[in-house]
Sequence to fold (241 residues):
Amino acid sequence: MILLVHGDREYLRAPGDELHTDLGMLTVPEDVEAGQTLETHIGEEFLVREPRGPDLFNHFERTGAPMMPRDIGLIVGHTGVAAGERVLDAGTGTGVLSAYLGRLGVDVTTFERDAEFADVARENMRLAGVEQRVDVRTGDITDELDDLADSGFDALTLDTENAPEVVRHAPDLLVTGGYVAVYSPFVEGTRAAVEAAREAGLSDVETFETIQRQMDFNDRGSRPSTAGVGHTGYLVFARNE
Fold:
């Protein structure tokens, strides 16, 4: 897949696809490369880009509120998950986290309870080019915990209401030193995840609220944007002994 960019417009297309807009029509060449400029039949130019993580985030089909890049960055930074490692995930949703991890070279097994959402996530993994690394399974992870025990995952990432129940099984799912990362939009779910981590004997239990503020710069001065507080959710991290 490639991105066709004209000003603030972006279109995700594959080689051989056609693009029809009010700026004209063009066919994407089979040998298209990033950095090229393609013209429509009326002479409008589109820059060709290789899609990056944020581009995929913007063009994925959504099945709800996806995890934001700011949260994904904290998960990667705090767990240190890297190419060649294995992550067990639950609450796939749109699949943004799984796609980011797959593009890092991580092998992901992710569970989504809603069959339609799981189908959308599989298509999103195809668009991201990580369908060989991300195994999207339909079902509730709690029904598979016995089969997943002793699998030796490097990290466990959860964005589900039943995350605390899964956290209690973390010692059976993770390698020694492996990490748990739980995302929750609500304080109540966050507290329950912390208590479950402590009950399971996990160490280094930490909780963070993710807040990001955009800066505004204009002729009058510089200050944080007044458009919202920038809160997305809470992240709980813990480590298997």
